[in-house]
Amino acid sequence: MVRWQRGLWWFLLPSFGLLTVVLLWPLGYALYLSFFDYYLGSSDRTFIGLGNYVELFTEARLWQSFWTTIIIAFGSVGLQFVVGFALALGIYKLKFSARLFTMLLFLPHIVTPVVAALFIKWILVSNFGLLDATLLGLDITPPDWLGDPIWAKISVILADAWIFTPLIMMVLYAALQTLDQSLIGAAQIDGANAWQILRHIIIPALIPAIIFTVSVRLMDAFRFFDTIYVLTGGGPGTATETITMYTYQLGFRMLDIGKASALGVITLVVVAIILLTINKVLTRIYRRGD
Amino acid sequence: MSMIVTTEKALSKRGQGARKTAPGSSALLNRGQVLLFAALCIFTLFNLIPLLWAVLTSLKHPADAFTIPPTLVFEPTLEYHKEVWLDHNFVQYLSNSLIVSAGTVIISVPIGSLAAYALSRIPRQRSGPILSALFTIRMFPHILLAIPFFVMGSFLNLIDSYVLLILALIAINQPFTIWLMHGFFSDIPRDLDEAAALDGCNSWQSFRTVILPLARPGMTVAALFSLLLSYNEFLFALVLTGVDTKTLPVAIASFGGEDISSLSLAAAGAIGIMLPIVIIMLLLQRHLVRGLTMGAVKG
Amino acid sequence: MASVEIMNAVKAYGDQQVLHSINIHVEDGEFVVLVGPSGCGKSTLLRMIAGLEDITDGEILIDGKVVNTKHPKDRDIAMVFQSYALYPHMTVEENMAFSLKMQKRDKEEQKQKVAESARILDLTKLLDRYPRQLSGGQRQRVAMGRAIVRDPKVFLFDEPLSNLDAKLRVQMRTEIRSLHQKLKTTVVYVTHDQVEAMTMADKIVVMHDGYIEQIGSPLNLYDQPANLFVAGFMGSPSMNLIKGRMDRSDPHQFVTQNGKVIRLPCPVDIDPGRELVIGIRPEHFEVSDEGTEFEVEVIEPTGSEIQVILNLGGEKATAAFRDRLPLEPGDKVRLGMSENGLHFFDSQSGNRLSPDLYMKEVSPEH
To answer: Does A123 contact B50 at a Cβ distance shorter than 8 Å?
Structure first.
């Protein structure tokens, strides 16, 4: 650091000091607690080493919640990405009222997630939800959208997609606007059709934005909580119980702090591994040219 | 030489093609635009159904809310909007939400900006690892932080206090704020810092008098996102607040999630929670989009 | 007003050394220009004087005091940046008054000093404007105004004219020069443009790859370049440099690499066969029946003179003539050169060979 700017290190102090106290220390404390058999409110705390981890890995509920998380995360991020990209392209191609559409399509993302989940719930809820009421009016017996194990998963995916598709759309739309128009012009002169332009020019140029959004969305999806809590509470049974939901049950319903901490640590490791893998794969695709 | 020839060929080809197909292609273009417009309209409308439905429900008497098939014709009433705010403590929850959001923004944005400015001026080989670490920290599962906060909060008897929730929100918000502000500060030329240093400023004076005024749009974006995050946050609010400090999302989740019979009331509450944030966001849309896309477009 | 002394200054980034033991003495009130191609280290050196870069080794003294560890704000120097670095959120007046404000001078004094500087630089009407409302030339002036307001010990200029168009650049060159004559403040000025260096400097420091190639007055550098780099860098069009050696039998003859013979205006006594480079400035060629025969390749009239690109067995050379000679591409022309326009360099070291080596009378029988 150049001598005259050394004073800048002090500027980091308030933020990093506070982060140490409110972020790093608690995270370390959680790691520490994960090695104990400890229920909140009880006075004894026994060190059991990796006991909580062993217990978690040997029970079916963890694995089930893990697969539920994977299905919901990849399902909803996949759906968001396809729809979001299509919308971004659509608005990008549209020569008028693009601003109006971005604004209206973005609305669901601004709404408080809990409120957004309630909006969806009032569509899907049995008998009196908009969907059921309409179908019943047409004499069709609808499935139980939130009570059937498979439909409940689909409903959760749709709800998450409703909230987050606008985000992906917006980021990709912004990235499209930075696209060099002369490239597309040149490709058209060379006789490329719309699909070839998309495949060879637009998508490669968007790769950084795609890596960014998909990574950020996936890590969000793994801590996915609000929507499920409101829509299904993890049910029916444990059909929509994600890892985060399960951790919540362990820690705040059963007050099994040790085991909940261990599960949190496991989640952290899993998220890190998945994100690193995805980043690597996408970056390799990117480096290869297109 | 050959390159020139091909380009010439291509140009003349395009010229001919354009002449020949000009009327047809422009008609096709227009038809394509109309189809695209129609498709987007339909999708947008469809996409807004849940929101519109909630608005309608909030204006309905129970008799109209529970019809099969659903009705669009009814006598609207604002009674439930009034009731949920006045008779069900939502004014109290709103004030809780505002206190928590304000506390978070007022602490998180200034200290985050300070750190971000320093990071943007520190040589890249030093700041790079710190920034990646901050980016990585963003991905930790919030529930992992909620547990120790809950445990320590219980020990310190801080559950159901504003302070604990504000600290938790700063913890999850700070890495993002720093990261966002770092982008803005990096866009301010270093020449200005140097000119200020030669004009007699120490680091703090340069920041205060020269850099900060120029970073104001960035601070607006950062404040906006911190506000959005703390107003909307659910998990920490759910586990760290109680009767006295319950925020709006927690209140509406327990209110609207359980009892279907008070549907109109819940819908009125939900719309009420949504409105202020939607209005703010629409007013500041330019900043919002800028913040959202910054990370992505810069790569 | 003060002198600046740079003693054995070294700058290294990690293992990479970008400045090697630099020694420069800037007299009180002197206008010194650091010139060299981009990447030669001139800007880094200027920033070291300013205190914006640390000094790895050696010492820098301003007004006789070592300033190595002093903060830029404590060095009492002003700098004009290439980008001007005006504060965008302040008016011209606020920009100019900023340093005085930081020194906590009283309001009246600030106002009066700014007004005075504004008058000198013809900025009085612009004081209420913001930088974005100014043209490039006006911004440049404000940047200078900001520097002169505080009456510093030393002015530093970092390529201040390179963002201006050609006409304005020539005009500002004159203005900076006359400003210096008025204020008599010590100036260290960095540029990559040798014309700027020639026209403005009391003393030029030519830098290349982190070393000083030569220090001297403009004419001194032009007439007696110390080595091939300076010879090639100073002057436009640049000096013709032709590789070859002296003929073994005739001290009047220089043989190029391609075996062509160039006839010299006087006999020269240098070991025949020694690898040499001779240098001739374009304007030192003259049409002469006794000269060497060149082929004309291209003619470039500039109006005031014509420049002729010549070919001698594959070796290219440029000549410049004040007279409008009736030449056509493809013509053969015989050209001689004046004695004092001839330079000799060692081809190994690139260093100038001093005149007494070759201006010796040669005995007739030789």
So the answer is: yes
Judge whether residue B293 has pLDDT over 50.
yes
User: Are residues A4 and C71, on separate chains, in Cβ contact within 8 Å?
Assistant: yes
Q: Is B75 on the interface with C (CB under 8 A)?
A: no
Confidence of residue B26 (pLDDT cuts 50, 70, 90): low
pLDDT at res. C360: 46
* pLDDT, block means (10 residues), chain A with 290 residues: 88 95 93 92 85 91 91 92 93 86 88 91 82 82 85 93 91 85 84 85 84 80 85 85 92 92 91 80 64
Task: Quick: pLDDT tens for C224-282.
Answer: 999 999 999 998 889 999 999 888 888 888 889 888 888 888 777 777 778 889 999 99
3-state secondary structure chain C: CCCEEEEEEEEEECCEEEEEEEEEEECCCCEEEEECCCCCCHHHHHHHHHCCCCCCEEEEEECCEECCCCCHHHCCEEEECCCCCCCCCCCHHHHHHHHHHHCCCCHHHHHHHHHHHHHHCCCHHHCCCCHHHCCHHHHHHHHHHHHHHCCCCEEEEECCCCCCCHHHHHHHHHHHHHHHHHHCCEEEEEECCHHHHHHHCCEEEEEECCEEEEEECHHHHHHCCCEHHHHHHCCCCCCEEEEEEECCCCCCEEEECCCCEEECCCCCCCCCCCEEEEEECHHHEEEEEEEEEEEEEEEEECCCCEEEEEEECCEEEEEEECCCCCCCCCCEEEEEECHHHEEEEECCCCEECCHHHCCCCCCCCC
Contact B195 C52 (CB under 8 A): no
The complex's ipTM works out to 0.88
